[in-house]
Amino acid sequence: MNLNDSTSSLEMDLKKNLSLVKGKNKLKLKKLITILSFLLPALILYSIFMLIPMFDAVRYSFFDWDGAAPSMNFVGFENYIKLADDKIFLKALSHNLLWVVLSLILMVIPTLVLAVLISRVKKGKTFFRAGFYLPSVLSLAVVGVLWSKIYDPMMGPINVFLKSIGLENLAKNWLGEPFYVIPALVIASTWAFYGLYMILFLAGLQNINHELYEAADLDGAGPIRKFWSITVPSLRNTLNVVISMVIINSLKGFALIWIMTQGGPFYMSELVSTYVYKAAFSMNKVSYATAGSVVLGIIVIVFTIAFNYYRERSEN
Amino acid sequence: MESLVKRWKTSQIALWTVLLLLLIFITAPIFYAVIASFKTNMEIFNSPFSLPKSWNFDNYINAWNLGNFKQYFLNSALITVGGMLIVALVACPAGYAFAQLSFKGSNLLFYMFLLGMSLPIQAIIIPIFFQLKTMGLVNTLTGVTLVSSGLALPFSIFLMRNTFRDIPKELRESAAMDGAGEWRTFWSVILPLAKPGLVALLIFTFMNIWNDFLLPLVLLVNPEKFTISLGLYSFQGEQTTNFGLIFGGTVISMIPSIIVYILFQRSFVEGMTDGANK
User: Fold this and answer.
1) So what's the architecture of A87-315 in CATH?
2) What percentage of chain A has pLDDT greater than the value 70?
3) Which residue, A197, B14, B81, B251, is the most exposed by fewest CB within 10 angstroms?
4) Hey, what's the torsion of the CAs at B64, B67, B73, B78, to 10 degrees?
């Protein structure tokens, strides 16, 4: 009797526990479904248009495929080996590098100086900030078309102006001569992108402790000295962000070059992105082009990860 | 004391003058385009720096009707509005889940989305084209809208997660105590508080999709389907020497983004600084 009692109570306990576990599982399942309902649309869209294409990009690059043939031939690393031997691809890579260096020179310090000047204005700061940001609002198609007309050798305002003041010698075919084409493009791209960096600098400048400048004033430091020994070091984090963004955006450049030169003349302004586009969509070398784009993607991602690692370390 | 105030005033005036001249110099290309859009080709060639003799809108009318900017404008509007809707409807719940609902693997999943933020689109544009081809959506506005929304997701989810993270979790918990379901809480308690973030998201999405060039270039073939950016590009290819007409088309293309910028200037600047510093 006693024994029976205890077993039955034990059974009851077990049953209770079981139903509790079941209830918990039900709750868990319900929670999981709720969370999934929040995430699923994003997951689906992201998978179809980003994740799967990422895998496909790597997959294509190991095959030989023209984009139309029903079957693909596996060729291993052959596309990459060919790329390493492709003079135009290597040239495009070196142009990307040159583009990065020129952008850094034109973009970082001049924009910082501009931001410092704007931050010193007492009245009308918003006006200048808004005004100087204006070019960044325009689409790259607008910027590209606008600047190709500005650089036009015959009717463009630059050459018309140079000729009108008697400097015909300086009037060049800006987008048609190998030596000038990349700098001319980088100037147009700087014009289109500096606004974002200016805003970031302005935000960073707001956080600098004013007492530092007052102390420097007492020491009799001039504006240039103050710029290099207070402003620049205090803005280290902002500078890090800006420099990395300039580098990444330079590597990503496509639209302006495509609109203004299509990589010409004679590949002199070819970047990896324009070369890859041509190879895929006008030469039908789809898998080869994909290999080139994977190289570009890896460069950008490795750089981004390395930079974030460096930033986290230097900030802690 | 008086001389100090004076000195301060002169230095401010000098600063103003320098900045104003610089601003005029830097924005000159925009004014040049606007002024040239009212000129005939002859006028642009003969007197490039003077004001037009008469303010005639021929270039605009011709670009709009004969240059088919009417159609491009409509296509861009459809793609952009569709994209904004999809991005808002998809990125808000996802950002909310990452910010407020704790679940296993949340970080891993979030990093997976972040991966897309650093990836250059050029690296995957070729597979995207073939993906869309198998779906039968190449050369359709629907296709461009879907791809644009998908590519906008990483940044959008990131932005919305940051927005929702700043809203105290207690709000959600007390709503749950009152018996509100998770969606109900999200929709009627949390989302209204995230309005500034949502506005920033919509503006960014508008700018990105309206101004995009690469996706329409790769995904659209038929000129009837062209967006305003792609239309402007092909227009300048056809009208190489017709400067006045090209500038008319260029100015038409600028107007929407400039209007949105002027209207939402504030959220623009704030959204951008937040996005880069977080």
Assistant:
1) Orthogonal Bundle (1.10)
2) 92
3) B14
4) 140
Domain ranges in chain A? 2-60, 87-315
CA angle A3, A5, A10 (to 5 degrees): 95
Neighbour-count burial of A120, counting CB atoms closer than 10 A to its CB (0-12 exposed, 13-18 middle, 19+ buried): middle
Contacts of A176 in chain B (CB under 8 A): none
- Work out the mean pLDDT of chain A and round it to a whole number: 89
**d(CA B124, nearest CA chain A) in Å:** 6
A4-18, A47-61, B76-90: which range is least confident on average? A4-18
Calculate how close chain A gets to B9, using CA atoms only, in Å. Answer: 10
Domain boundaries defined on chain B:
2-59, 66-277
Q: Closest by alpha carbon to B39, among B27, B51, B25, B23?
A: B51
Q: What is the ipTM of this complex?
A: 0.90
Q: What is the CATH number of domain B66-277?
A: 1.10.3720.10
Q: Which tokens is B97 given? A: 């889940």
CA-closest candidate to residue B170, choices B195, B189, B196: B189
* Contacts across the A-B interface (CB distance below 8 Å): 252
Please enumerate in sequence order all residues whose Cβ is within 8 A of that of B31, keeping only pairs 6 or more positions apart, or say none. none
Structure-block tokens of residue B203: 């503006």
pLDDT at B278: 46
Chain A closest CA to B11's CA: distance in Å? 10
Cβ distance B127 to A147 less than 8 Å, yes or no, reads no
A22 or B200, greater pLDDT: B200
